[in-house]
Specification:
about 230 residues; alpha/beta; Rossmann fold; two-stranded antiparallel ribbon; 8 helices; about 30% strand; globular; binds adenosine-5'-triphosphate; binds magnesium ion
């Protein structure tokens, strides 16, 4: 059986991924601040709403309404009418928001085309100190399990973004969230910043595609594919 894919709407990225986002698994985007995680989430949102699907978007980091307007252009009303946005402000609220997102995706009353969690590690990182560390790991694991089951059971692509930490051993940037997240996400893209608006998405993991990279630029109206 060939898994269904949904176009991301960025030609170079869709080519790299063999058509786009797989609908039965979790896709993870990680990269430093400004690398393009949120704009790619918005690009996927824009794409999903083209055929009137709903998008469930859990925003821990404060997505810019201006940016949504810039990328949506004359489709702003259609995008906003199909966006179910939640803005949790603590780890507990975040876990509840993900649970609510999963329930909405499952109940079938709306045709959900995409679930986004940007980022899945913001409150987790804040709680990673002192005696809240175990609880934070547990919350993240519960969220990830919820999201994986939505993708698998409902056939809805799920995109999560992830922050990075610098490994002092070699100075490299690595994704947060531990091995559970890196196993659970079946497609993993690392976003690298280049000069100015240039960005590169490196395919670090995929179940059926070779490693590779896609180039794009961040523009006033969103994302422009290079190549
Ligand atoms: P963070 O980890 O901080 O959330 P991110 O990876 O989500 O960062 P994005 O918000 O997707 O990053 O992208 C931010 C980049 O987009 C910035 O480098 C900024 O220069 C660029 N950008 C934002 N608005 C515009 C615009 N109107 N025109 C061109 N580039 C823009
Ligand atoms: Mg962001």
């Amino acid at each position: 059986m060939v898994p269904t894919v949904r176009p991301w709407g960025v030609a170079s990225l869709d080519r790299l991924l063999g058509g786009g986002l797989e609908t039965d698994c979790l896709t993870e985007l990680y990269g430093e601040g400004g690398s393009g995680k949120t704009i790619l989430c918005l690009q996927a949102t824009l794409q999903a709403t083209r055929d009137d699907a709903w998008v469930i978007y859990v925003d821990a980091e404060g997505v810019s309404p201006n940016r949504i307007a810039q990328i949506s252009g004359d489709r702003l009303t259609q995008v906003l009418e199909h966006l179910l946005l939640s803005t949790p402000r603590s780890l507990d609220e975040h876990t509840r928001a993900v649970r609510a997102a999963a329930a909405l995706a499952r109940d079938g009353r709306r045709r959900v085309g995409l679930v986004v969690v940007d980022s899945v590690t913001y409150f987790y990182r804040l709680a990673l100190s002192g005696d809240t560390e175990d609880a934070a790991r547990q919350s993240l694991a519960v969220e990830i399990a919820d999201l994986v089951s939505v993708a698998l059971q409902q056939g809805i692509p799920v995109v999560v973004t992830n922050q990075v930490w610098r490994n002092p051993r070699d100075g490299g940037l690595e994704p947060l969230g531990g091995s559970f997240l890196q196993h659970a996400a079946k497609t993993i893209l690392r976003l690298d910043r280049g000069d100015g608006a240039y960005r590169r998405a490196v395919l670090m993991k995929h179940r059926s595609r070779p490693e590779g990279a896609a180039e794009f630029r961040i523009t006033t109206t969103g994302v422009e594919s290079l190549g």
